[in-house]
Amino acid sequence: MKRFASLLAVAALVASACSSSSASPSAGTAGGGSMVVALDGPAVYADPALVSDGNSLYVEAQVVQGLVGLKPGTISDVIPVLASALPTVSSDGLTYTFKLRTGVKFHDGTDFNADAVVYNYKRWQNFPAGDVQTAAYYYGAVFGGFGDKSNVADVSAPDQQTFVIKLKAPQSNFLLASTLAVFGIESPTALKAGDADNATLANNKYAQGQLGQGKDMVGTGPFMFKEWVAKDHYTVVKNPNYWDSANAAKLDQVIFKPFKDSTSKLQALQAGGADLAFSISPLDVKTAKDSGLTIIDRGASCNQLNLAMNQSVGGTPTIYADKNVRLAISEAVNKSSYVAAFYSGLGKVPTGFMPPATLGFKAETLPSYSVDQAKADLAKANLTADQKTIDLYYPSNVVRPYMPDPKGIAQAIASDLQAIGFTVNFKTEDWGTGYVDDATAGKFPLYLFGWTCDWAGADNFLYAAWFGYQNGQPNPQFGWKNDQANTLMLKALAEPSEDAANADWGQVQDLLAQDLPVVPIVNSTPPGAYTSKVHGFVGASNGIEYFNTVTLSK
Amino acid sequence: MARFIVRRVIAAVPVLLGLSVLLFIFVRLLPGGPASAILGQHATPQRIADVNEALGLTRPLYVQYFEYIGRLLHGDFGSSYVDGTKVVDVFLLRFPSTIELTMGALFFAIGLGIPLGRIAARHSNGLIDGIVTVISLFGISIPVFVLGYTLAFFFGVQLHWLPTFGLADPTLGVPAVTNFPIIDGALASLQGGTTAPFVDAIAHVILPSIALGSIPLAVVTRITRAAVIEVSNEDYVRTARAKGLTEKRVDNRHIMRNAWLPVTTVIGLEAGALLAGAVLTETVFNINGVGSWVVDSIRNHDYVVVQSLVLIFAVIFMVVNLIVDIGYAFLNPRIRYS
């Protein structure tokens, strides 16, 4: 018993020692210190050109910069970064000429110049087929493919401060999509030395982040790569020689730590072990506020949740092929009640078919909530009793920024649909092991599905994510056949600029409002939180946020 | 003894081979595939097909299996479809954390469970026995994640005594020499002349060890109690007492020496299970161990990782059991393997 008591005493001593040492691990001072940032999950590759996940890009955006970027806190204000000004564009929309900043150096000490930009663009275009092209999703998505399939005709460096890119066809999303962190310019010297083009990614130490400081993820940003411990943490440190001294990093280092569990993440913030969490559950917002945490102000939404009504499943028309049914459902769902119940004040009822801050957005007059009107419109469809028994699909084992409680939202929608005469059967599938596959393959008739923007352009929501034809046929996800809309979307994509494409996108949205293939449910801003020690953080709903402005108080 | 070990190793080969076939089939029976995990919201039927083609998953299953086994026999456990990391590299990075967590849990369970079991046995059917029984029931009844969150809330969030996540404070920048946080912390302390890294590593392991060790604690306590009571009633114990030996000597030489056998068996089984099954604790305390890795890999349909990891777990389980069996011989000289 005496030994047991001694053991307890030792444990108490350790605990008391820890209370002063490690429970406040990031005791930095203003103008320095270490910040711990909780990510939603592990990052994938240390080479930004090879990733398409938000966790990787969140880390890499601190280190690697592109020619253009987004004004901090916005989702579509394009600003020059490594370019000294926004590019000039030829009248045919095919040639973009960027003037580059002078005096910029990569983290390995080599010069940033037009040759380096050309090297990066050629590298991306010539990524080998297989794993590398799969990983480098965004290049293919933005430019229509790799190699000869790419819409990039040529890149050149007439002089060291001028970079010219020629496209095969005008591309309205070129400038906005170029703000993606995947188009960050890395040091050609480091890429070559690190064998970054090794097509076997398991043996590609540059991609695996195993080469160390100054050799991996070598960009020009306010932070430099320090350490990449797979699935555990990723550390970036202050760049003492940052080219833009006014915006140099104030923190000594930022450690990004993946968290799998939202409760664990919240407790880490509350206990002070983490300083900022990229996201917390919307259901935890009140708890976070009550415990003194600040909810990140992310401004305008860059996502949308829809209730999709697939008009054709397996080649057979569904009841949703009848516009009266779609209209009735649009009128039956009480969207404002869902927003109030599930989004902790961080969601808004959509006024169109994509978030309002998206370039090309047009507000539409959407059906308003009216049970009586919904019943009347449903009656016009003359559905049989069997047809009024419907399946509603929602994903399980997932929380999406636009869908914090899929089951709860599905139940709320079902309740509203039952009020107009439907009998609703719930169906669910695991998000990762079937839901996405089956939804995109067009196997669900009525289901929840949303999108978080890659870039805040109409093309990203309306064409790439949802309604663009696939292989000349309507996207099986929605079975929405509208050749006019598809033609307009293709025309908009091929306009020389986003501004020029706006009229086309506007018409597409008018057609959507006429046909109602989906019910827009919510535009949300995903909640994140930080402790009272954090100052100067600027949030953005597209997940592009920078830490160079952040300071930590004691 | 050597022949016994060789026989056990040879017997393991068909077991592992059969397991590899079952695993290979099992992971592919799960709905979906790795393409969804790789593509995320960008998944479309065409892109999924392209990724499956790129990963070689469209080839006949037997070709994939023999290719996998061929690589395995050359010591190549493969790499992740999702992030390209080699299974062996990540295993060597993460397994030390799981070992440390398991050791912490066992330290807690054995260090507390055996004394409690002995005390309960000595006062069997009395008040103390009742209290110990209640403690055991709590240990078994409270789900690990509930206990974990509760411990983190009280000792981390409320009292700020102990950290709530990980096995080391990343801001201390302790170099990963062995990947065992406590050992690395100790090395850093020795080099830096400060106790902070070592104390930090000890502090990080306390709460998860208690959470993970709660069920083994209950089991060890109950088994110790039962074994001690059973042995105490043996004739040779009575004879020992009749010979006039001190109670301490009877307890140590005659009761505990024999009571150790069932307790050792249970500890061995618990150790094996903890090494492979600390998933919930690793999740609650955000520990980068192998338990949560295998679950993530199953969710991502990262076939090669799942196959290789479960095979490694099976080998670990076999080795732990072998060690337990060998331990019997040392604990009880009457047992001899031939």
Give a verbal description of the structure.
The complex is a heterodimer of chains A (554) and B (338). Chain A is of the alpha+beta class and 554 residues long. Chain A has helices at 2-21, 54-60, 114-125, 131-135, 137-143, 174-177, 188-193, 262-271, 285-290, 323-332, 335-342, 371-380, 406-419, 431-440, 458-467, 483-493, 498-515; strands at 34-39, 68-70, 78-80, 88-89, 95-99, 152-159, 162-167, 223-229, 233-238, 253-258, 276-277, 294-295, 303-309, 312-313, 316-317, 347-348, 389-396, 423-430, 446-452, 518-524, 529-530, 534-535, 551-552. Chain A folds into two domains: 2-256 and 529-553, D-Maltodextrin-Binding Protein, domain 2 (3-Layer(aba) Sandwich), CATH 3.40.190.10; 303-524, Dipeptide-binding Protein, Domain 3 (Dipeptide-binding Protein, domain 3). In chain A, α10 (323-332) packs antiparallel against α12 (371-380) and α15 (458-467) packs across α16 (483-493). The longest helix of chain A has 20 residues, at 2-21. Chain A is globular, with a radius of gyration of 25 Å. With 338 residues, chain B is mainly alpha-helical. Chain B is 76% helix and 0% strand. Chain B has 14 helices and no strands. In chain B, α5 (87-122) crosses α9. Classes of the chains: A alpha+beta (554), B mainly alpha (338). At the A-B interface, α1, α4, β10, α8 and α14 of A face α2, α3, α5, α7 and α9 of B.
